[in-house]
Amino acid sequence: MKLWKQTLLALATACSFSAAHAAPIELDKVKVIVNEGVILQSDIDTSLKTLRANAKKSGQALPSEDVLTEQVLEKLIIDTIQNQEAERIGVRIDDTRLNQSIADIAKENNQTIDELTASVASEGLTYTAFREQVRKEIAANEARNALVRRRINILPAEVDNLADILAQETNATVQYQIGHIQLRFNDDQTKEELEAQANELVKKLKSGEDFSTMAYTYSKGPKALQGGDWGWMRKEEMPTIFADQIKMQNKGSIIGPFRSGVGFHILQIEDVKGLETVAVTEVNARHILLKPTVILSDDGAKQQLSEFVQRINAGEISFGELAQQYSQDPGSAVQDGELGYQTPDLYVPEFKHQIETIAKGQISEPFKTVHGWHIVEVLDRREVDRTDSALKNKAYRILFNRKFNEEAGAWLQELRASAFVEVVQENQDDN
Prior knowledge:
- Its main location: periplasm.
- Keywords: Chaperone, Isomerase, Periplasm, Repeat, Rotamase, Signal.
- Residues 173-271, 280-380 form the PpiC domain.
- The protein is of the alpha+beta class.
- The protein folds into three domains: 30-149, Orthogonal Bundle (Triger factor/SurA peptide-binding fold); 174-273, Chitinase A, domain 3 (Roll), CATH 3.10.50; 279-385, Chitinase A, domain 3 (Roll), CATH 3.10.50.40.
- Helix content is 52%, strand content 18%.
- The strands form three sheets. Strands 4-3-6-5 form a four-stranded antiparallel β-sheet, covered by helices on one side.
- It is elongated.
């Protein structure tokens, strides 16, 4: 026992001697408590260093040190809250996606990865710290996008109204080559019989019958002997009954039958000039969703889906049967997991990546999104001409972006207001 005490005393003396002569090392300090997380002095210093370096490069003047520190601190608080939300809903950014994002950053700056690394180092940041900073920013964006999207409601009438405004702007330059068939009211046919004949003609045209031949044969309109061809016209040059029916349809569209005071009319858009054409790939996929719970862990959900894939590939059970029994997406489960033809952009990034990259008929490995764990199978892909809906899509994007920015601001304010935030005073660090 005596020897043990002497050893302890010698160690204590040596430690005291070393501490008295070594250079003092300042420990990192907790500056702000944000809910269950903290912001360190080093976080503030790093952000200030980066901000000053960027301002120096761009020649941007900065406010006073106190104001700058206050602004940086508030941004760090907001960023911390957003990252806590990302953790809460299970957003995870893997190294593959992170590496791709960093490659994109380098490309935008016309740099190689090595040049970007050197640039980061010149700002006083380690490459490891920079990677984690980017990872956190991506996760925060994912959380914000997922949670704010739920708050956005766009009514069809809003889209239609804005699309009409955009169409009026576009119509000033768009020209249409119009084909026209007119069926007149007469004493030999009732209105119902004439309408039935018009519907039958439309059915034949949509099945591939030649429009000019049908116009020569049936039309009683002013251009019947020209095969119904009215030539090239802007909407402002057309008869009103034509202009009222044309809503930015694309080449080959059949419009009608529609009624006027003299009978029924059928239009065909033979060609279009000056109208943006849009072709998109739609994917018909089906999936099985499992949501982790207190009972079912992440690993458990992933393992269960892996077993599903093995059973399907072995022919023991069909994808549809498993989707009906186990999928926790009620809307698709009753359809054997099928989601129908959709553009990939409608899905969250991880899901979008899977349906864009796996082959038709292939079942993915289990993967995680903000909704839970999935496996997905691509049933089919098709190219779709969306020219007729291009303006509606554009109108929807404009409305979505407007509302997203409004709702994102409100969402952040609500998060900030409900968060526990405490600035740690200096005298508390000494206790």
